[in-house]
């Protein structure tokens, strides 16, 4: 059941207009997060939300040669698949990243939030039956979003 897509969202308001069309072939596939604990963040997104690693980038050279420094994660395959990129860095201070949130479109955001809440994931209802925030291990917000029925 891979119904979800990751969307980086600037506005959810109906009627948000674009001044001009994007260049041909460009589309948004998802955000990248700098994380301090790459293994823990990967494990959380795999076990809690069902993403899987579709590409691993190893460190080249130095004492960490061959060790992963970046994971590209996704819910599925295909050229238009949405992705979440996790990249390790020691330069990022503790706490959440400086972005608003990762948005996951889910067929039943309320049900999934309840299931994850029962597993100990911090959740917060934002819009009843439509939007719920989760908090990942480093304090980043992940939104579960079910588009309202017309």
**First and last CA, distance:** 24 Å
CATH fold descriptor: 2,3-Dihydroxybiphenyl 1,2-Dioxygenase, domain 1
Q: How helix-rich are the residues, as a percent range?
A: 10-25%
In the sheet with the most strands, the strands line up as 1-6-9-8-7
Question: What are the low-pLDDT stretches, counting only 5+ consecutive residues below 50?
Answer: 1-18
DSSP summary: helix tally:
2
- Portion of residues in beta strands equals 25-35%
Name the CATH superfamily classification.
Answer: 2,3-Dihydroxybiphenyl 1,2-Dioxygenase, domain 1
Q: Report the major sheet.
A: 5 strands, mixed
Average predicted confidence as pLDDT: 79
Which key phrases capture this entry?
2 helices, 4-stranded mixed β-sheet, 150 residues, 9 strands, 2,3-Dihydroxybiphenyl 1,2-Dioxygenase, domain 1, alpha+beta, single chain
Quick recap:
The protein has a single domain, classed as Roll (2,3-Dihydroxybiphenyl 1,2-Dioxygenase, domain 1).
